[in-house]
Amino acid sequence: MRLANLDGRAALIFGDRALDVFEAGGFGPDPMDVLADWPAFSAWARSVTPAGSPYDPALVGPPVPRPRQVFAVALNYPPHAAEAGYEPPADPLVFTKFPTCIAGPDETVELPGDRVDWEAELVAVIGRGGHRIRSEQALSHVAGYTVGQDLSERRVQALGKPPQFSLAKSFPGFGPTGPHLVSELAADAEISCLLGDEVVQKASIADMIFGVPELVARLSAVCPLLPGDLIFTGTPAGVGNRRTPPRYLTADDVLTTRIDGLGELRTRFR
């Protein structure tokens, strides 16, 4: 199942066609309303015969336009922990991206400084909320997955001792997501990031230290999870500030993020 935010309305995607969810099934029309009624909607959506009309991809927005909580995980791939100078963590290192940073899959983002970095990420979307969810039940609470970027302004991130993460990662447009929410994902799907034509990150999501079920369990042990919450699950090695010399995004760059089975998003800068 592929669910899209098409010009602010929830739509099921079948190849090059889109089916308006409200017109076909009475759910929505806002994508957030669909997520709030996820168990009933997902049961209906899996029974729908592929249909719909051609649509304009330029109208596709973030699959979850207004999440209430956006969690993010640091150092969740061993090679990225190593390039940052750390041992792989024994527990998830969690911070938040503030929800106003969320953007769609084809955006132009204003650079707030000269040290904006890329971080390709798998994003899990909560469909059924809960508190103290056991890891063996966690996937029943996940609506699906989408492609994400955890853009980061490293100069702001390094302010203070110790440094803080959340503000540096929450400028407008610093949470591109999309193009769709996809209900299933291969356990070894490849994630990659391209700067122009150059591949700067590539890994398998199977390499994550803490997989989605454990992250759902660990987060919900503290915070009740809500329908539409996003979990940015961490980035592989290859970020710009760990290169020699460091490399940061400029107004001439085009950043493409891909995950097998989920599609790709493209971000430009000004």
From TrEMBL:
Keyword Metal-binding: yes
Pfam family, one: FAA_hydrolase
Molecular function, one GO term: metal ion binding
Keywords: Metal-binding
Biological process according to GO: small molecule metabolic process
Family: Belongs to the FAH family.
Name by which UniProt lists this protein: 2-keto-4-pentenoate hydratase/2-oxohepta-3-ene-1,7-dioic acid hydratase (Catechol pathway)
Organism: Amycolatopsis pretoriensis
